[in-house]
Amino acid sequence: MSLATEKLVGVNGAVVTNPMKLSAKPHTDIAREAGDPKLPPHQFSSPLFKYVLPTSSFRSARATIRARDGYPLDWDQAGFALVWPTAELPDPDADHPGDANTAPLYVKTGVETFHGKTWGSTVANKREVDWSLYPLSEGQDTQSVTIEVVKYGERLVTMLVRKTENGKEIKDITRAIPWCFEKDEKREVLWVCIYASRPDWENVLKGNLEVEIEEFEVTDDNGITKLI
């Protein structure tokens, strides 16, 4: 199966390279409530690659990301961002993050460092933010992580994928978010994104968070599209 990298669109400085990389500067984030009170509450400054499709067509997505230096700062994060832009703001970015009425809804799921430890992390934003952390499996490589998201009825199910010593793949369900595919909601367009963020609320300023994307595929009504 050939790659369809040309269908990816970079946002906030993300550029197609080989290998595919994201470089998140300090103070980049996708957020409804910024951790720094000096900043506007709505942030959409993280570099990301997006694949756009109708919400109704989405079935699942899978990605493997690698941060060779890990996620050393609190709030360092990377993974999937599923974004539903509003009609009033169809193309949010760092310069146009929106406000309480126009900012996109989103789900972020992947890994994040908090209190010096890297966790599995999911944030769901439907005008209110719902954040959860879950411990990674003992011995799991935090530098290279595989993530899957699956549509299940009206829900979005998020998973971390790990391999046993004999190579068997195990999918650990981490969240089931009930509102993502509600039939009575007019969320017609979906961005399936890989993103990286370095909010750096404590102003450590250690440079950029560098993340390689080793795998990225999306399954919709037309089948599997391998993007990376």
From TrEMBL:
Protein name listed in UniProt: Uncharacterized protein
Record-linked Gene3D superfamilies: 2.60.120.200
Pfam families: DUF1349
Organism: Fusarium oxysporum f. sp. cepae
